[in-house]
Write a structure and sequence with these properties.
Shape: elongated
Strand content: 35-45%
Order of helices and strands: EEEEH
Mean pLDDT: 86
Structural class: alpha+beta
Largest sheet: 2 strands, antiparallel
Protein backbone atom coordinates (compact mmCIF):
# COMPACT_ATOMS: atom_id res chain seq x y z
CA UNK A 1 0.00 0.00 0.00
CA UNK A 2 1.44 3.35 -1.01
CA UNK A 3 1.57 6.12 1.56
CA UNK A 4 -0.18 8.69 -0.62
CA UNK A 5 -3.78 9.81 -0.88
CA UNK A 6 -5.32 8.81 -4.22
CA UNK A 7 -7.48 11.96 -4.40
CA UNK A 8 -5.41 14.89 -3.09
CA UNK A 9 -1.90 13.40 -3.35
CA UNK A 10 -1.00 14.12 0.28
CA UNK A 11 2.11 12.25 1.47
CA UNK A 12 3.96 11.76 4.75
CA UNK A 13 6.02 14.66 6.10
CA UNK A 14 9.27 14.86 8.03
CA UNK A 15 9.66 16.81 11.24
CA UNK A 16 11.22 16.83 14.68
CA UNK A 17 10.24 15.32 17.99
CA UNK A 18 11.18 17.37 21.07
CA UNK A 19 11.82 15.62 24.36
CA UNK A 20 10.00 17.51 27.12
CA UNK A 21 11.94 16.29 30.11
CA UNK A 22 13.60 18.42 32.75
CA UNK A 23 17.05 17.16 33.64
CA UNK A 24 20.58 18.54 34.00
CA UNK A 25 21.78 17.04 30.69
CA UNK A 26 19.92 19.47 28.42
CA UNK A 27 19.62 22.58 30.55
CA UNK A 28 20.11 24.98 27.61
CA UNK A 29 18.52 23.18 24.65
CA UNK A 30 15.98 20.36 24.49
CA UNK A 31 17.08 17.28 22.49
CA UNK A 32 15.38 16.91 19.13
CA UNK A 33 15.18 13.82 16.97
CA UNK A 34 13.91 13.35 13.42
CA UNK A 35 10.59 11.62 12.86
CA UNK A 36 7.91 11.20 10.18
CA UNK A 37 4.31 12.32 10.37
CA UNK A 38 2.36 9.53 8.66
CA UNK A 39 -1.04 9.92 7.06
CA UNK A 40 -4.29 8.56 8.41
CA UNK A 41 -5.20 6.49 5.34
CA UNK A 42 -8.24 4.30 4.76
CA UNK A 43 -8.77 1.78 1.96
CA UNK A 44 -12.02 2.68 0.17
CA UNK A 45 -13.81 1.18 -2.81
CA UNK A 46 -14.28 3.95 -5.40
CA UNK A 47 -16.44 3.86 -8.53
CA UNK A 48 -14.24 5.04 -11.43
CA UNK A 49 -15.90 4.93 -14.87
CA UNK A 50 -18.17 2.06 -13.85
CA UNK A 51 -15.42 -0.09 -12.34
CA UNK A 52 -14.77 -0.44 -8.62
CA UNK A 53 -11.20 0.40 -7.58
CA UNK A 54 -9.72 0.01 -4.09
CA UNK A 55 -7.73 3.16 -3.26
CA UNK A 56 -6.05 4.64 -0.17
CA UNK A 57 -7.69 7.92 0.86
CA UNK A 58 -6.80 10.33 3.67
CA UNK A 59 -9.48 10.97 6.26
CA UNK A 60 -9.99 14.57 5.14
CA UNK A 61 -10.98 13.40 1.63
CA UNK A 62 -12.98 10.49 3.09
CA UNK A 63 -15.09 12.87 5.17
CA UNK A 64 -15.74 15.06 2.12
CA UNK A 65 -16.83 12.04 0.04
CA UNK A 66 -19.09 10.81 2.84
CA UNK A 67 -20.68 14.23 3.21
CA UNK A 68 -21.30 14.47 -0.57
CA UNK A 69 -22.95 11.03 -0.62
CA UNK A 70 -25.28 12.01 2.27
CA UNK A 71 -26.44 15.13 0.40
CA UNK A 72 -27.43 13.20 -2.75
Amino acid sequence: MSKECAICGKTSMAGRSIQHKHSVGWRYKAPRSKRTFNLNLKEVNLDVDGTIVKAPICMKCYKKLRKESEIK
